[in-house]
Amino acid sequence: MKTLESVGKTVDDAISNGLKELNVEDIDKVNVEVITQGSKGIFGLGSKPAKVKLTLKNNYETIAKAFLGDIFDSMNLKCEIQVKDEGNCLKVNLVGSNMGIIIGYRGETLDALQYLLSLVINKNNREDDEFKKVILDTENYRSKREETLIKLANKLASKVKRYNKSITLEPMNPYERRIIHTALQDNPYVETHSEGEEPYRKVVIELKGSSNS
User: Is pLDDT of 56 > 90?
Assistant: First the structure.
């Protein structure tokens, strides 16, 4: 991240001078640290300028488009990369004619790309409050998958209740396991827990009170 120190008669002047030097118009695109407030002195004598340090914030949109663009170019895949920076979340949507390749088997490729993009986006963020959540989607896959998993959770919960027998689902990533847990958290008859080690961790659905864990 680019950083520079700037001076001016006042803090506002110092900030303004720094923004001009960075060629940035919006102060929201920089972090400002006031080094000295500056002083007028007495009768114009002994005055000291204000000094600030400006650090250019990460341009997440540029980073995301460059990283994904390089990957898709190597795959000879034409894809429009749409990016929305919404506070602590960066939403990236991919638009193209052959997105099945990007999604992969049950979203595995999409999840892998999302994980790698998250690493790239957050590599310079050293504080917890700077962490940027990344959501990568295409063809509304995330919403469709969530709907499918919720239906599956409720269907299997009914089977557990009917046959009084626990059901263990296939391995899922943390995001998908969370959908199952959330879908059944208010179910009066069954409860859920996860078992196993990543990447083979699974959700278990069982009757309430049947688990000792």
Answer: no
144-207 CATH fold: Ribosomal Protein S8; Chain: A, domain 1 (3.30.1370)
Question: Does residue 99 sit in helix, strand or coil?
Answer: coil
Which amino acid is located at 81 in the chain?
I
Kindly report, residue by residue over 163-193, the tens digit of the pLDDT.
999 999 999 988 899 999 999 999 999 999 9
- pLDDT tens digits, residue range 58-74? 788 888 999 999 999 99
From the DSSP assignment, how many helices (H) and strands (E) are in the chain?
Answer: 6, 9
Under CATH, to which class is 60-139 assigned?
Answer: alpha beta
Residue 107: Cβ-neighbour burial (10 angstroms; 0-12, 13-18, 19+): buried
